[in-house]
Amino acid sequence: MGRGPTSAADGRSGAPTPPLLPGGYDPADYAGTVARAAEAAGVSPVLLMTVLHNEAYKPHHPLLELLWQWWKPGASFGVANMHRAAFESVRRAHGLSGRWQDLRDDPAFAVRVAALHLGDLDRVLPRRHVRQYSRDELLALGYNAGERNMRAFARGVPPGPMARSYLRRFRACRSRAADALADGGRPRGTDAVAG
């Protein structure tokens, strides 16, 4: 009921649709998708999975997101909770044929676009930055607050209350995200130590 893989015939990628009922959504359901998308985009799968955990505060079923958008037209879409401006930037940069609304209907596409966005942010983040934030923390802040703010935080400009709250949740979700990948995905670098 909404959690099984979609068929190839409907044009979707096979990732499970988030449940309609509250409390049933778990980003760990996308561990394999996260691992593949992160590897293809050249970003940390733990970073990407932590972003999904951080963005899990609202239901992500396509019908609920459609209703939410009706009430709040500027709302973000998909399991990665991406705003239209960020999506359009990624779409143009990577020549994606999908539409912003596809984030709502195709979880695997939403994860892939989030991974590409994090990769884009990583390319513009200065290699040297203030020590109080890890690179992944700055990338997560960039995902949440935008590229310009991410660069300012990297220079030492203190984040505002919303960005600080996002960072606190990001730090709290990190071990749960790593556990989800260890249980269901194949994070980069584990093949070499498997024996």
What would the keywords be for this entry?
disordered N terminus, mainly alpha, 9 helices, 0% strand, 195 residues, globular, single chain
Q: Would you write up a description of this structure?
A:
- The structure is a single chain.
- The chain is 55% helix and 0% strand.
- The protein has nine helices and no strands.
- It starts with 30 loop residues before the first helix and ends in an 11-residue tail after the last helix.
- It is mostly helical and 195 residues long.
Describe the structure in brief.
With 195 residues, this protein is mostly helical.
Task: Break the fold down into its secondary structure elements and pairings.
Elements: H1 31-41, H2 45-54, H3 62-71, H4 84-94, H5 102-105, H6 107-124, H7 135-145, H8 147-155, H9 161-184
Helix pairs in contact: 1-2, 1-6, 1-9, 2-9, 4-6, 6-7, 7-8, 7-9
Instruction: Give the SSE string.
Output: HHHHHHHHH
The structure class reads mainly alpha
Strand content: under 5%
Mean pLDDT: 81
The number of helical segments is 9
Overall 3D shape: globular
Please report the distance between the alpha carbons of the first and last residues. Answer: 38 Å
Calculate Rg over CA atoms: 16 Å
| Largest sheet entry | none
Annotation, overall tally of beta strands: 0
Summarize the amount of helix as a percent range: 55-70%
Q: State the low-pLDDT regions, or none.
A: 1-12, 186-195
